[in-house]
Amino acid sequence: MLPFLTQMRLEDATHEYTELTKRLVKGIENLSHLREEDIEVGASAKEVVYREDKIILYRFKPVVEQPHAVPLLITYALVNRPFMVDLQEDRSLVANLLKLGLDIYLIDWGYPTRADRWLTLDDYINGYINNCVDFIRQSHHVDKINLLGVCQGGTFSLCYSSLYPEKVKNLVVMVAPVDFHQPDTLLNARGGCTLGPEALDIDLMVQALGNIPGDFLNLEFLMLKPQQLGIQKYLDFPEIMDSEDKLLNFLRMEKWIFDSPDQSGEAYRQFLKDFYQQNKLIKGEVMIGDRQVNLANVTMPILNLYAEKDHLVPPASSLALGDYMGSKDYTVKSFPVGHIGMYVSGKVQRDLPPVIANWLKERAE
Amino acid sequence: MENETPSWTEMSNQLLNTWTAVGTQMWQGWFDMMGVAAKPPMTDMKVGLESVTERLVDNQQLVARLLRLSFNAWQEMLPKVESGADWQQSMNQYVQQIKSQVDEFSAGSLKINQDIAELWKLYLQETQKVSKLWVSSLGSVMSPLGQAAWNGGSEPWIELNNLYWNFLYEETFGSLMQSPLLGPTREFNGKLLRSFDAWIKLYRASIDYQVLLADIQVQSFDALMKDLVARAEKGEPVQEWRKFQQIWGQVADDVFEKAFCSEDNLKIRGRFLNALNTYRIHQQGLMEVWMKQMDLPVRSEVDEVHKSIYELRKEVKALKKALAKYESQETATPFAVSEPATESALASSLVTQTSETTPEADPNPVPEQSPESPAEMADASHSPSPGKTTSKSTARRQSKP
To answer: Potential cystine with A112: which of A22, A116, A302, B163 (Cβ 3.0-4.6 Å)?
Structure first.
């Protein structure tokens, strides 16, 4: 018999059950009034300024009269949608940065289809990111812009900054993996950071699936914490159902979590093999197209932000950047949250935007 | 007496004739009855059955004829015996005939027996091989079973699963499945067999993976019990169901993470995923065979088309970029023929003109200009860029909120 059952009193259990039922009844009533439109993500006003194939470059409408002269381009990961940085009004990194006077652009990678099966990292970095950067430079009549890379987008930003240092003024990387050899991190271990193809034969997977389905990636992330993310989260759901605000927040997160685009087969192949399995980034062996990435060429000021409780990108992986980059102006800052908490935690939303904005403004000249 | 006792010869003749007639009638009647008893679905087979019965009856008649000949020989000899004539010669001739026939029959029988013996020997040898596999696998099973009973864990069960497949499948059908095939459908059959083989490997790997998951569940339950007991001992008993669930979730996920960071378990999971992907590839191959027969476009053809489009698109982009660069260089050279600064082909080519309406489209979009248009290059060379970075040597700083 489970020990705790002997300690649980019947009257407490009954009371707990009664409270739960009340919340459920109210929650169902709240839920029945909600529609999909009520949980749209992307709170801040923006406009499309550039398109190429399926990617869209958005510019967020400034909320101050004189935005910062050097625009900031946010490069998100290919996994999940980029609007996590602008999830809702009170949890929006973008909105807070806009209030602090920054001029912000965001790349939306779109939803790759089978036609995009052959897109490579060369297309993403030397192609799309470079063209977006050129467009912004052209629009603002500047030689260099600021770059903010999030997660895999941070890794891409590092590669881009190494290849085009003349176009990047300041670089901010947020929960960005650099050293992928992390045997104690389940995501890296599963990706084959120690075993390579024995853990997961990427070539076989791409041959079988073509584009890697978003559902597969969802499942991979859920299976990192199957009990908590697959069961516990929904067992806790009745607790917040009676509050409409909390319910909306939860549903918005659910929408974002499971809105996963497919990954282009060739880009996925190179990222998993070169970065996760062979850890080529810190070895200086990554080839993007015909150009070699060398982190020592990243010489512009760098702000490295990481999450102390990150189970997807462990702190050691992000902190490794300090050992390989070539910048003389390198700042590291951490926050006591998890990977997703960096974007949506209320406390972080209070502290993080000023850190970024002030750091960038200090390096405007 | 008026009616003399018939002679042996007459009696034997009568017996023979009667026996033959009876036998023939019996068989004929039997097969007639079979034909009558046959139900309507059997009517198609009735013709075949009737031909078979006719052959049997013919054979029966042949046997009867042979018997009649034997009796005829006796019929020839018996009168001589009765009359005291020299019947031995006939007897000897008859015996010689019988003997030669028996000799022939014996030689044939001996050969048949030899062949049958050899067949049995082969059969027993092959049966022995299979039995040996079963016996040795049974013997090998004891150790893992013992370990499983004694130690628990997933390794013995996985070893058992592997033994089963290695001994009983790989050694028998598995190796045969890999052999080259015969006939005009060898290619298709080969695909089928390879798909089956892939399915077997997937099935095997999935059992290993499920055994592993079950073991991890058991471990997590064990860890949960230890945690609850530790809390109770510390005076922090869990008294709420929700708290219990949270602890269970946390503990289970910790055990899960630790288990799957081990290389052995990663390999099991990797084998399962790789087998799944391999099976999917074979499945697609079979699907393509069917679709080709139905004259439908297949995945590999569509991928080929997409690849061609992708490569062409990339080439066009590169050409347009080169053209834009060339144009901008042309217009930038002094004393060049004055031409209006043209909009670079780059920007116009890069912006995809789509027919769909975009709610967020800017009514006053930023003018699309090439990043390397001559105007911009001229401006850049003459006016200081506000974005230039002055070099700063700053010690690395690390701060926390």
So the answer is: A116
